[in-house]
Amino acid sequence: xxxxxxxxxxxxxxxxxxxxxxxxxxxxxxxxxxxxxxxxxxxxxxxxxxxxxxxxxxxxxxxxxxxxxxxxxxxxxxxxxxxxxxxxxxxxxxxxxxxxxxxxxxxxxxxxxxxxxxxxxxxxxxxxxxxxxxxxxxxxxxxxxxxxxxxxxxxxxxxxxx
Length: 162
Hints:
Layout: H1 2-19, E1 32-38, E2 41-45, E3 48-49, E4 54-65, E5 69-81, E6 87-102, E7 108-124, E8 127-140, E9 147-161
Antiparallel strand pairs: 1-2, 1-9, 2-4, 3-4, 4-5, 5-6, 6-7, 7-8, 8-9
């Protein structure tokens, strides 16, 4: 009985996803809004379409903890799509700064540069879910160059396009 129900649900999902047309030529996107989660840090980006296969997405992250710290991140992320199907893959990068302002003083500004691969699954032409795998270089406290690191980052995102 359980297998029959699972098979019924799986068949319904496959039929529903197969009935939505591919992304090629479906619509012209000009801009959007995206919520991202990168390394545990939430952010908001505004993807701006520069043609059919290129996006420039400026973004902002804000983390305020009462009595502890305020962190503000500003960044820009280009995406270069290799295809525009239901699952659209792309090459991406990111350049940004993170300003860390603890309440006790000692403000720092970190420089972050990353590059990697990503993909978006278009649920419909105006809404997609995405994931990226990035290699990130970090220069901590660029005013004093107190440390450098290289890390891997996973980004999860939800996009709405207009």
